[in-house]
Fold these 2 entries.
Entry 1:
Amino acid sequence: MAGHAFAETIRSGKPQIGGWMQIPHVMVAETLAQTNLDFLLVDGEHSPIPPNSLLEILPATERYGMPVMYRVAWNRIELIKAALDHGANGIMVPMVNSGTEAIDAVSSAKYPPAGKRGSGAWRASNYYQNDPEYRKNANSSLAVVLQIETREALNNLDDIASTPGVDALFVGPADLALSFGMEPGRLAPELMDACQAVADAAKKYGIASGIDVASIDDLPRFRQMGLSLFTYGSDLDFVLQGGRSVAKDFHHVFLTK
């Protein structure tokens, strides 16, 4: 239920904010699930969280009704179907650079005739007890989000955005900056123009768009462009920020007198 509502909310263009999970431990998942974020983005690309880790993560997040999107390490069917068979509410696929790659990603996430996902959603179907119902609804109830992270992807935006079954395009600002020969972390005009192009392409084909933001203060600017799916911060950031905030307050009280 939470997953279906999550996918529909993405498609609606209603603003949502999620946080990244990069620490591979169920206690982190269970804690993040109580943050009142709109969703968690579990990172299987740049964190040590392979799809089989979802076997412990998802029961912990589902306890609190927290939707989980899983970012696969690469655009490969075995990674996508594994995440969905575990019960993830959606997938994010990195480095999608062409219409052909977009078709491959969607096909891996959809049952025939829309795709080539094989039957076997062991946990997602409650160990096959609800398998017919799950398969009937899966193609519409699971979110498919594709990352735009290179110049090549920008050149192929129409082909990617027009692929049936894509729910959102998601800018990867760090890798996109690197593809421009720039150091990540600065919202240079060229990067902002690229974000606008992604938002415009998504709007043209009736899908959503989003980005990972480095500062909450940047959200209004991106929202004005038309983006609606956002992530900010990670478990690592939250731990560091919380600890540093306590240390700063302590030192302010006792070392400034």
Entry 2:
Amino acid sequence: MTFLGNLIWLICGGLLSAIGWWLAGILWCITIIGIPVGMQCFKLSALSLCPFGKEIINEGGAGSFLLNVLWFFLSGFELALGNFLIGCLLCVTIIGIPFGLQFFKIAKLCLCPFGANIVNIG
């Protein structure tokens, strides 16, 4: 079931979300200081491609908090807003509700991606 959900997910906007993460990662990797942030973006783009069957666990500390504050103002708000709006559009229909909920999960991750670990469930 997760394979079918992930396949339909790509069609319903998951690819757009992943492209947003890739663009943010490329922009962060332009500077040497931003390379760790860019690498985190590339790691989280994998979640944007296949979110079904995965869960996010937050294990951040003080360093993650500082990076999340910087991230929020430079890239996070824009990514979160895009994912939130796509999620709202999908939740208008009954069929799109599971996909909209996944977009809300990714929008939450867009606000605080550092200190988050992605684990497979089931």
